[in-house]
Amino acid sequence: MTETRTETREETQKETRQTPVRRPRGPRRKYALLDLAAPVLAVLFAMAVASVALLVIGKNPLAVYGTMFAFSFGRLDSVAAILYKATPLIFSGLAVAVGFRAKLFNIGVEGQYLIGAFCASWVGFAVKGLPAAVHLPLVVLAGALGGALWALVPIWLKVKRGVHEVISTIMLNHTAFLLLHYLIADVFMDKTQVIVGGAGSPRVRMPLMEPTALMPKLHGLAALIGVDLPSHSSLNWMLVFGILLAAGLWYLVWRTPFGVELRAVGHNPDAAEAAGINPSAVYFKTFLMSGAIAGLVGLSDLIGHFGYLDIDFPRGYGFTGIAVALVARNNSLGIILAALLFGFLSRGGLGIQVLEKVPMETYVILQGLIILTIVVFWEVIRRYVRARQKREEASADAQC
After folding, report:
1. Architecture of the CATH domain 57-358
2. Contact 125/207 with Cβ under 8 angstroms?
3. To pair with 386 at 20 to 30 A between CA atoms, which of 70, 113, 197, 325?
4. What is the pLDDT of residue 214?
5. Burial class of 26 by CB neighbour count within 10 A (0 to 12, 13 to 18, 19+)
6. Quick one: residue 59, left, alpha or beta (phi over 0 = left, psi -120 to 50 = alpha)?
7. Sign of CA dihedral 28, 29, 30, 34
8. Using the 8-state DSSP alphabet, how is residue 75 labeled?
9. How far apart are CA 213 and CA 310, in angstroms?
10. 205 strand-pairing partners
11. How large is the C-alpha radius of gyration of the chain?
12. Element housing 5 (H / E)
């Protein structure tokens, strides 16, 4: 009887030693709330600091911010303008974020989307006789291929020659601008333009794109949900395409084998290589993907508004996309919200300039403060969460 009790006690102790100790999972809900609170607190802090600048120039901060919100959301055409301005920033932010995932700094989105716009424009006016169901996708594909082609040079130099992509992409941005200027002003300039009234000079632009190459507006979709968009709004289906692309990239990064490789290389390329992943191949695919997305940045303006590519085509989306990706912490779905924030700031900045006579510099200060404070706030929270998790792990180890 005594031997039986001894054996039972020994078996129980053995099972206890073999049973893994379940460590506390930590206050994940609290951490999630901190992540959500960071951008809100950052925006409020940036507004408080910008209020000082407004007081210095003799403006009432409450009146200025009230005008900014009323002008942006008080009218349907302003809301449509915010969505329209956010559309190219979604693509730009996604292009930058994809590269950041693999620790690739694609500073060349600016040049890549200009080349993509040129390729899309050329296909739009040079290819004729196709139905819209074929011509329009072909134009979009041409834009993506143009951006990927311009991204091919810097990633080849990085993988084969060790040239850092920041240097090569910055140089190619300027090269793209000069090349585009030459192609528009000399090679493909539309010399058949009719000057109204017989005075003035023709626009420095390429020929008009075919109607089958233009992106339809969102007025029909908006009408289905009971929203009557103003006729002058240029909001188009590129917005929907950008949202779907963001969702697709989120799935690619977090739910596919390539996404695992991408995150592994971005976290530690040496460890990834030891695990059988080829970092060079991942770099190559990722950068070309980033360039292809960058080639779509200018299409909302090109095929959804202007219908032609001219020498004054909008610029700056590539550099703003870097800020969008940083604010969203490279999260594909967060980039949509960040792009909307920048669209709101752009629209609201116009309102306070016109109605409150606030200088443009004040809007730039507010935009820069929001970017800076969001990045800082998130970094502070990240370090706080990491420190808490380390203390919890240490406490769990001590209990073992």
Report:
1. Orthogonal Bundle (1.10)
2. yes
3. 325
4. 97
5. middle
6. beta
7. positive
8. S
9. 17
10. 310
11. 26
12. helix 2-18
What distance in Å separates the CA atoms of residue 147 and residue 155, rounded to the nearest whole number? 13
Asked whether 120 and 303 are in contact (CB, 8 A), the reply is yes
Range in 29-38, 142-151, 202-211 with the lowest mean pLDDT? 29-38
Task: Say how many CA atoms lie within 13 Å of 35 toward its Cβ.
Answer: 13
Q: Which two tokens stand for residue 298?
A: 């200018």
Position 29 confidence tier, pLDDT thresholds 50, 70, 90: low
pTM: 0.88
Cα distances (angstroms) measured from residue 28 to each of 33, 35, 38, 39, 379:
9, 11, 15, 18, 17
Please say whether the beta carbons of 317 and 113 come within 8 A. Answer: yes
Q: Does 82 score more than 90 pLDDT?
A: yes
CA distance 276 to 350: 53
pLDDT tens profile 329-345: 899 989 999 999 999 98
List, for residues 267-290, the tens digit of each pLDDT value: 999 999 999 999 999 999 999 999
What CA–CA distance (Å, rounded) separates 42 from 246? 24
Reading the block at residue 242, the tokens are 């950008």
Q: Which of 355, 362, 376 is nearest to 74 (CA)?
A: 355
